[in-house]
Fold this sequence. Notes:
Layout: H1 3-24, H2 29-53, H3 62-90
Amino acid sequence: MSLSTILLWSVLPPLIMMLWVWALRFPQSWILKTVVILEVLVMLLVLLIEFDARHVAGNGGWTMIFFAVFQIYAGIGIGLIRLVMWCSKSKP
């Protein structure tokens, strides 16, 4: 797998997730800071694994696929949590 593909699929999902959490505007400031730290750490781990796996034929890409799918589910979950917070706050 090429280096540009590894960088694209290892860096793009965390950036999208950070923008998503920022756009949801959680009232607690620690949530965005925690998400940024976790995303950077996991991104570095995925990059490390994929850089090593690209030298073995047929072995590269699995971590990035799992990571991207996990990011989708986590983004939906975070959106639902924010929706519940918003609905519970708007009730009189």
